[in-house]
């Protein structure tokens, strides 16, 4: 389903706001907002910007949104992770582990790197799947494809999949950045 999205991340005061506009059933405008501010995660979706069709908050959303912030920071703004609330450990030869603590929460991920040391993948068990029996902790994996062979550039494409206690799901997200409509900037 095509969508337009805008995102704001901040550090060292960890914050994330993600706004996505799409057309529900390809007709009705919908806005989805995911946020993590002062240790609280929340997700909401509204049709026509008025009628609530999705809402979530609480511990699971706090952890989920902090894990998403960690994913974003690894890929787009690694300097956000140069704080005393982040710990690093060596993985195998092609990975490292990173843990981010914030307002009583902590999330951990394994980051896969290529031969240059550039991030190529991210895996965490600090995400949740919405199953018929309720929110269930599930492993999420993301892979990124970079468009440049040298230098630091944002990915041109990202794909994600989630494992539930029963099985690996099919691809649940695919992001394709359009260079003409994408911008990454840092406040100075």
How does this structure look, described?
The protein is mainly β and 188 residues long. It contains 1 helix and 12 strands; from the N terminus they run E-E-E-E-E-H-E-E-E-E-E-E-E. A hairpin with a 4-residue loop joins strand 6 (86-90) and strand 7 (95-102). The longest helix is centred in the middle third of the chain and has 18 residues, at 59-76.
SSE layout:
Elements: E1 3-10, E2 15-24, E3 28-37, E4 40-47, E5 51-57, H1 59-76, E6 86-90, E7 95-102, E8 105-113, E9 119-131, E10 134-146, E11 155-163, E12 168-176
Antiparallel strand pairs: 1-2, 2-3, 3-4, 4-5, 6-7, 7-8, 8-9, 9-10, 10-11, 11-12
What is this entry, summarized?
With 188 residues, the chain is mainly beta. It has 1 helix and 12 strands. The longest helix is centred in the middle third of the chain and has 18 residues, at 59-76.
Q: Which properties best describe this structure?
A:
188 residues; 5-stranded antiparallel beta sheet; 7-stranded antiparallel beta sheet; mainly beta; 12 strands
Indicate the overall shape. Answer: globular
For the largest beta-sheet, the strand count, sense and barrel status come to: 7 strands, antiparallel
Overall domain count: 1
What's the count of strands? 12
**Strand order within the widest beta sheet:** 6-7-8-9-10-11-12
Mean pLDDT: 81
Regions with pLDDT < 50 over 5+ consecutive residues?
none
Sketch the topology as an H/E string, one letter per element: EEEEEHEEEEEEE
Q: How much beta, percentage-wise?
A: over 45%
The radius of gyration is 17 Å
Provide the helix percentage: under 10%
Total helical elements: 1
Terminal CA distance reads 35 Å
- Indicate the structural class: mainly beta
